[in-house]
Design goal:
alpha+beta; 8-stranded antiparallel beta sheet; 4-stranded antiparallel beta sheet
């Protein structure tokens, strides 16, 4: 076999091999097609943290992680001796204010009223004598046997006695009527102020017994029995299982016209089932979030949107943290 024939055979073999590769590639492209894009999200729920307005020591925790609680259930009990001391102070202040108000309402004691009455009677008797003395001196002055000086002295004594009667009458009226209206109002205001202090301390005492505000599942318990917790420190977290949704981060070229109110199908790998979901929230993640640069090819940057959707129907045993998959 000549060298030329060998060369042709090798060339034909190479061409045949390349042709086979091309044919296999074309068949694979059309057979397998494009790999579908997958958008993955996860299930989330609303949560609220149980915390106390007063610092204290954990005496008892009545639930554990995983328990389902209803509104009004007791979750934890705290010991707050400082609050108990403040309650004793507030109650003492309320009792003192109530006593002052009662004294203002009742007015002076009976002994004071009787004493004022006796002084009034004494000044009236003195006025009567001063009036008679002045009348006698006036008649003698009219007859010319009494000097004007004596007459003026008797008149001044008469007027002074008259003023003493009026003063004694005022003291007697004041003792009988009791405190002024303004003093009674001030005493009543002090009572209301003391009652408000007691109510405030009562609200702090109520904080030593933590109850569930809404029904849900206890997802986390932070302190142990005997530990101290500060004001506002979280004691536990309650997941509101009735308020559940899925969150997806979707690049804008994958949105394909998706908008609030649209419905789509998501796959739940945990249960190998599909569920219907409805979009209720869409918001761009901002320039700091995940994005895809395409300017190198003369196009534009693609931003990422946060999309939230709720299941259209109740999904049994759906749990927060489970994956949700959207396939193109």
């Amino acid at each position: 076999m000549s060298a030329k024939t060998q060369h042709n055979n090798i060339l034909l073999a190479i061409i045949g091999f390349v042709a086979v590769i091309v044919i296999v590639a074309v068949i694979g492209f059309f057979a397998l097609g494009r790999e579908p894009e997958i958008i993955q999200g996860q299930v989330e729920v609303s949560e609220y943290r149980v915390s106390s307005k007063v610092p204290g020591r954990i005496l008892e925790i009545r639930v554990k992680e995983g328990d389902y609680v209803k509104a009004g259930d007791t979750l934890a009990i705290l010991d707050a001796p400082d609050v108990k001391a403040k309650m004793a102070q507030a109650q003492s202040a309320e009792n003192a204010a109530a006593a002052m108000e009662e004294m203002a309402k009742n007015g002076a004691r009976q002994e004071q009223i009787r004493g004022a009455y006796q002084v009034l009677q004494q000044t009236k008797a003195g006025l009567e004598i001063a009036e008679k003395s002045y009348n006698r001196v006036q008649r003698l002055f009219d007859e010319g046997v009494m000097s004007a000086q004596k007459r003026d002295e008797a008149f001044a004594n008469y007027k002074a006695s008259e003023a003493q009667v009026k003063a004694a009458q005022s003291q007697y009226d004041m003792a009988r009527n009791g405190a002024r209206q303004e003093e009674k109002m001030a005493a009543a205001a002090q009572v209301n102020r003391a009652k408000g202090a007691v109510q405030e301390v009562n609200s702090y005492i109520n904080e030593t017994v933590q109850i569930a505000q809404m029904e849900g599942e206890v997802s986390d318990v932070y302190p142990k029995v005997g530990e101290l917790v500060g004001t506002g420190s979280p004691i536990m977290t309650i997941s509101i299982m009735n308020d559940m949704w899925g969150t997806f981060n979707i690049r804008e070229d994958q949105l394909k016209g998706m908008k609030v109110g649209d419905m789509f199908t998501a796959f739940v790998p945990a249960y190998n089932k599909e569920i219907k979901m409805k979009v209720y929230y869409m918001k761009d993640e901002g320039s700091y979030a995940v994005w895809k640069a395409t300017k190198a090819s003369g196009q534009y940057d693609l931003k990422t949107f946060e999309v939230k959707a709720r299941p259209v129907e109740h999904v049994e045993n759906l749990r927060p943290g489970m994956s949700l998959v959207i396939r193109d």
